[in-house]
From TrEMBL:
InterPro entries: Acyl_CoA_acyltransferase, GNAT_dom
GO MF: acyltransferase activity, transferring groups other than amino-acyl groups
Domain N-acetyltransferase: 193-328
Feature: compositional bias, Acidic residues: 142-152
The protein's name: GNAT family N-acetyltransferase
Span list, region Disordered: 112-157
Gly residues composition bias: residue spans: 112-141
PROSITE patterns, per database record: GNAT
Domain of life: Bacteria
Pfam families on file: Acetyltransf_1
Source species: Actinospica acidithermotolerans
Length: 328
């Protein structure tokens, strides 16, 4: 039986040492704290790094980009060093994560056997910006343009793999999500003139809990810079909301986009998303990012219409011995 050669892995200990292309990549721009790098590992066609997960609060989260064999080698190298400190990882969708699902759940810190198999590393080429947090996203309920996308997308809000779903063996199943980025202001959307800043955090949180229970950020999350939303012109009731956040490296990232069921079909989710994206560029940003659960093709088409493109197709999995590792 032929044995595939394992990719050569190089280890880095600081951001200053990293290759320039890696510093501009999607995952690193979104998923790192500028002051925290537990380690970084590169191969000829992939990389991995461990830092703080700002959304989930995990002190050590591993992110991996690359084709299957390279990703497997990077995971082995990283987990072999990080041991039980690592709370979980985000890897390319299609990679078989079974060899590592029980990592940290037993007595030892060793990684699982095997190299993993599966599909590629998504559509990102290492030059983009934008991912979801390690615990998935809460987006995916935007509005369409009257051709049927709107109702379908909003009906599918949050219907991707749920964060932390428990499998039959008691382990957490991977959540599946896509990262997207936009490099220019979007076209003006119908209803965008109705979008205004929302400052009532209590009302925002009640709305999110009711309309989009899997929202990625709470109303008072420290990374939220502003909330925008649309209200009923007569009653003042919230109809659609979304958050403009900055990840720890300062990258613009949209989160917790949600539309009330009674207001779906009016284009308000698309209007809120467009207004949030526009805010990024008027603020001087050169890129705006978001993420949505997979599968959610209707929502993806909406974001594409606004100028977003998919950069990474990912899955995130939490490890077993999280509490002992200091994970929330």
């Amino acid at each position: 039986m032929d044995v595939m050669p394992q990719a050569a892995v190089t280890r880095y200990g600081s951001y200053a040492e990293l290759p320039g292309a890696m510093l501009e990549d999607t995952m690193l721009l979104i998923e790192t704290d500028p002051g925290v790098l537990h380690g970084a590992w590169t191969a000829s066609d992939g990389y991995a790094f461990a830092s703080v997960d700002g959304y989930g609060g995990d002190p050590c989260w591993l992110n991996v980009v690359g084709p299957p064999e390279t990703s497997a080698a990077l995971i082995e190298a990283a987990l072999g060093e990080l041991g039980g400190r690592c709370c979980g990882m985000t890897v390319p969708r299609g990679l078989d994560v079974a060899p590592w699902l029980r990592f940290g759940s037993g007595g030892g810190d060793g990684t699982g056997a095997g190299a993993g198999t599966g599909g590629g590393d998504g559509t990102g080429n290492g030059s983009g910006a934008g991912t979801g947090s390690g615990d998935g996203t809460g987006n995916g309920d935007g509005d369409g343009d009257g051709d049927g996308d709107e109702a379908a997308a909003e009906a599918a809000a949050g219907t991707g793999a749920e964060v932390g779903a428990v499998a039959a063996d008691g382990l957490l199943e991977p959540s599946q999500w896509d990262a997207m980025r936009c490099d220019a202001p979007p076209p003006v959307q119908p209803g965008e003139e109705r979008v205004r800043p929302i400052e009532d955090l209590a009302a925002l949180q009640e709305f999110l809990d009711r309309v989009n229970p899997h929202h990625s950020v709470r109303a008072d999350h420290p990374e939220v810079e502003r909330w925008l939303g649309a209200r009923d012109a007569v009653s003042g009731e919230l109809l659609a909301v979304g958050a403009f956040t900055r990840r720890r490296r300062g990258t613009a990232y949209l989160a917790s986009i949600a539309t009330a069921e009674a207001a779906r079909g009016q284009g308000l989710g698309a209007a809120v998303t467009a207004a949030l994206t526009r805010h990024a560029f008027t603020s001087g940003d050169t890129v705006c990012t978001l993420a949505h659960y997979h599968p959610n093709e209707p929502a993806r088409r909406i974001y594409l219409r606004l100028g977003y493109r998919t950069t990474h197709q990912s899955q995130s999995v939490q490890f077993g011995r999280r509490r002992e590792a200091g994970c929330p």
